[in-house]
Amino acid sequence: MKNSLLIFGTKSFNNSLNEIKEYLDFSIVYFKSDFSEILPSTIKGVLVDNNICIDLNIVKLINNINHKPLLLIDTPIVFNKCKYTDKISSPFNLSDLNKKIVNLISTSKFFQNSSIKIKEYIMDKNEKKLKRDIQSIALTEREIQLIELLFNEKKPLSKNIILNKVWKYSNDADTHTVETHIYRLRKKILNKFNDQSFIINSKMGYLI
Question: In this predicted model, what pLDDT tens digit does every residue of 111-127 receive, in sequence order?
């Protein structure tokens, strides 16, 4: 199934796209009125026409589309209102548009896989950092694995389960290994972010 592009465009712009859509490497969904009606999971990016009337409601809708690249056709008015990922200048040819969209979707997938939003934090696996606002701490590979495991499970995990999934019961690991790593990670987070509840310890185990 093709990736889809959500289009905010004038009638004439949409008609122009209709004429070439069979040559594109993505399918097209046109904005109507309610995102809940038109946003299938295949939508991977957004394109905004420079001639569309951008009111505050549409700007809010566009800016609330999470984790999808936003491509704007070059216009200062739109740039002042929308958070965009990249732009393309008009007039442009079919090849330019196609290449730009494909590259945006590929780049977006890479960053989605490397960045995880956890509570009010972003864990960047690429940079090996946990970030909140402008502050960050460096993470080891084990700490990244540990945080990702606890976050993805959404339930308390015992020390033995963590040991199995993160350390694979290696010869140099025991339950104290888990406790030591969690203690050090909690201390780093407390010292930098003053947060004592990022990792919670319950009777059932550890959780985020």
Answer: 556 788 899 998 988 88
